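I hope you will forgive my troubling you with a question about protein structure. Here, with my thanks, is the record as I have it:
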Amino acid sequence: QVQLVESGGGLVQAGGSLTLSCAASGHTFSNYAMGWFRQAPGKEREFVSAINWSGGTTYYADSVKGRFTISRDNAKNTVYLQMNSLKPEDTAVYYCATTLNPWGTRAEESRYLRDGASYDYWGQGTQVTVSS
C-alpha cells in the first residue's frame, strides 16, 4: 500500500522560507513522478510543482516559479519543496501526490503532471501559514 507522509509545514512571516518533505513508501519510488498541490480555504486545489521520476525535469505553477524548488532523493524515497520568499497568498494546506511516471513528450508529461486527476495517491497534507 502506497503511503505518503508530508512534514515541514508551519507558521512563517512573509519573506521567510520553509522546506516541505514527503516520505513515500509501498512502491518503487524511482518509477513514479511526484507532485505538490495546495488548497486554500474556500478555493480549489491547485498545482504547485512536479518532478519526474529521475528528477531531471521539473514543473512549476507561474505563481511560485523562481521562489519554490522541487527536488527528490530516490535513495531516501523522499521529495522536497523548498519555499522561499513566501507570501501570505501561499497560505494553504500542501499535499504531495504520486503517479506512475508517464511516457511521452515533455509537453505531454507537463500536462499530465499538472493535472491533479493524474495522481493515484495523496498524502494527508501539511498546513503552511504565511503571516503578513
Notes: The radius of gyration is 14 Å. The first strand starts at residue 3 and ends at 7. Helices lie at 106-114. Residues 93 and 127 are 4 Å apart (CA to CA).
